[in-house]
Amino acid sequence: MKYEKSLEDEIDWKVIDQLHTATNFFASTSTELKKIFFTLIVIAIPTLIKLSGDKLDRALFISIFVLTFLFWILDSYTYFYQDKLREKMNLLFNDIKNRNKTENMPDSNEEEVTIEIDRTSENRLKRSLFNYSMFLYLLVFIINLLATILFYNELI
User: Fold this and answer.
1) Tens-digit pLDDT profile for residues 62-94
2) Do 78 and 30 meet the contact criterion of CB atoms below 8 Å apart?
3) Alpha-carbon distance values, 107 to 71, 101, 118 (Å)
4) How far apart are CA 5 and CA 1, in angstroms?
5) What is the pLDDT of residues 100-130, one digit of tens each?
6) Are 72 and 93 in contact (CB under 8 A)?
7) Cα(88)–Cα(16) distance, rounded to whole angstroms?
């Protein structure tokens, strides 16, 4: 049997294409945020040390905490919407698949095309804040925390 797109299929494919473009935009924005973050860190550390008379100052540690937190939240925002758009694309793919089911098609228990079933909206915020991509921010946060403790204990 030959597949013929219905009007609903055409509309869904156009929407999927637009959602895919938006998802790619958020993904590239996330990459750019990480580049900007590390560039700012590399510039901020020597600048703040120089401004404080070539000595460590608590402003350095506070600045790194603020930058890390700010970029972590911004990057989590981009991840959140990537995930949300993928879920919407998944629903549209399933609509197309269900509209075009034939008697000869074997039943499939798989309901996902773009994302796994366990990636529900109820844990999206947690996934957005704590995923492999965000561990970079957590690592910088932990290193800065350790450096801050060493600084206040006058070990550095």
Assistant:
1) 999 999 999 999 999 999 999 999 999 999 999
2) yes
3) 44, 9, 20
4) 13
5) 887 655 565 555 555 665 566 778 889 999 9
6) no
7) 8
